[in-house]
Structure formats: structure tokens, C-alpha cells
Amino acid sequence: MDLAYTPKQQAFRAEVRAWLADNLPREPLASYDTREGFEQHREWESRLFDARLSMVMWPAELGGRGCDLTEWLIFEEEYYGAGAPMRVNQNGQLLLGPTLMEFGTEEQKKRFLPRMAASADMWAQGWSEPNAGSDMAAITSKAIRDGDHYVLNGQKTWSTRAIFADWLFGLFRSDPGSSRHHGLSFLLVPLDAPGVTIRPIKALNGKDAFAEVFFDDVRVPVDNRIGAEGQGWHVAMATAGFERGLLLRSPARFQYTARKLVELYRANQASADRDPSIREAVCEAWMAAEAYALSAYHTVGRLARGARIGAESSTNKIFWSELDLRMHETAMRILGARGELLAGAPESGDDHGWLEGFLFAQAGPIYAGTNEIQRNIIAERMLGLPK
Asked: Is 123-229 a domain of CATH 3.40.50.970?
């Protein structure tokens, strides 16, 4: 694997670094799990779009820049290295976007992707239901065909930032006599449609990070279906692969956290070294983050040669989610009782972000498919073990 960058890639890195240096917000944005912060992040996304840096790997005619995946990794390294704001439209841009590229019609791509890249439309994901969490094949929300519309009834839950979003994508059972992964359709639903009710679900930090969405005779045009009727499972599995693979959680995100963890350790080394295992955990975190980045470059090289990511995306998901958890647990051990202080507490200083990250990291082994399910996938599909 040749890790030398071409002159074109080096020029792209320099351009991204210079733009971020000139345009980063002077003050941190509010949490995007609040209305104020959500709109601040939407505005930031619009600025990225105007600079053709929102979705760099998308085709130019669809709101992107036409970069390859290596240049995307470069962009991510510079973006996280600069401490830029978290990306608020990830569900749309990193999950639905690639799905539309693969399964959408030309009209659907032109209709949705440029607005998604500009964050003019913000997206929520509609997978989980009260009785269908990690087991998506147990979905019961219905989409019954009525002429050129579907009529939706049912409930989705744990939809990230759905309280603020404009659209939702998800699976609905379009064949009422079907079961499991058969008879499902992948639909795009405007959240301001008559019959949609959204109720916020507060996260551990008290913010409206999630929502449950109710559908009561909601009419959605058939043109909003991605892929063929009844083939939603196939489409959704591709989306899940994007979620578990490279796109949702780039290596740069964890390299940035690992560097911050090293800085935290050095600033508190006298107390941290009372427990030698902390130093070891910090070193292991840094090495694991770098190893994940090298693995990502290797995967990108394989994709460039025509390979596809299949069940191995489950190994990625387990690795990054458990790495994130270990890094934040190590940070909390370094900080001790001080790590439990909320933002605004007199003694919290600049370290309160570790608590926010620690709370969020608890969800990592659950969202994008629980790690227990991912281990089953690895056992069955990669290792050939019996069910």
C-alpha cells in the first residue's frame, strides 16, 4: 500500500486547511440537540456547501466536488484536525445520500441530493420501532398502496434529531401479508405531512437528541419510494453497510479523540501515573486509532480496484464503537470526580466535553446495529459458522 500523496491530493489538503483556518466559527456552536444549535449547524453546513466542501465525494452536478475516497479521507483529517463543528446532517448525507446514488432514479437524485448537500433538507432515520430495534425484520409500520400514494400507519422510535428534521427515510411494510424481511419498502417521508406526530425523547444529558414519530393515515407519493416495491430490505441493507462501514464514522474522528486524550493525559500526568494502566490505555487508544486509519486507506484502495464492502463492515462497526467507548472511559479515569462536572460548573474548565462524549459513546455499541448482532453476522457470513 503506497501512502504517498499525489501533488493533486496535497494541493487539495492545502486548500481545505486554508479554508478552515479562514472560516471556522470563532466560538463553539451550541449543541445540535437543541433548536438553537441545530440551526447554527445548518448554517455552517450551508457555508461548507458554498465552498464545495460539504460532500466532496459526490458528483459536482449533485452538489459535490467529484473527489475520490482518498481525498474524502484527506478532507476528514483536516476537518477534524481543525476542530471543526460536528456534521449535523449525517443521516442524510452519509447514509441516505449513498443509498440514493446506488438505488435512486435520476429524478430522485436531482430532486434530493443537492438540497441534502446544502442541508436545505435535514434528514432523520426511521428504522427502529417499539418492537423492532436491532431486529429490523420485525418492522410492523404499514405502507398500503392507494393509487399513486402509500398510506402510512405505525410508529418509529429513537429517530436521531427527528424533532428538528424536515424528512425521514425508513422501512415500511407494504405487503400486509408478508413477514420478516419480505414485503418491505424504503420510503422518504416529509415530516410536515398531515398525520405525522413527533414527540421528543430526551437523552442522558437532558437534550432532545431523539424522537418517536407516529404516522396516522399519512399519504406519501409512490415517487418517494427508493427501489422496487417490496425490495426495501435490500436497499436498507446497503444503507446499513454505509452506516457500519467507513462513511458514518471516519477514522479522523477517532484520531482526533486519541490526540485529545494524549493531551489530557499529559496535562494530568502526575495524578494519572498513580495508576500505570492509564498510561497503557492512552497508548493503546492512540495506536488503535492510527491502525483504524491505515485500515481505512487499505479499504479505500480495495474499493478503487473494484472490491465491495460486505459483511466486513460489521468488523468496522465493532472496532470504532468499542474504541470510542474505551477512549472516553480512559478520559474519565484521568479526570476522576472532576470529569462528572457539567458545562458551566465553576471547576469544569474545558474538560466538560469528555463527559458529553462519554455519555454519547455508551450508545456506540447499540446504534447502527448492536455489536452482539454484528458478531453474529461476522460468525455466520465471514467465518461460516453455523447459526
From this structure: no
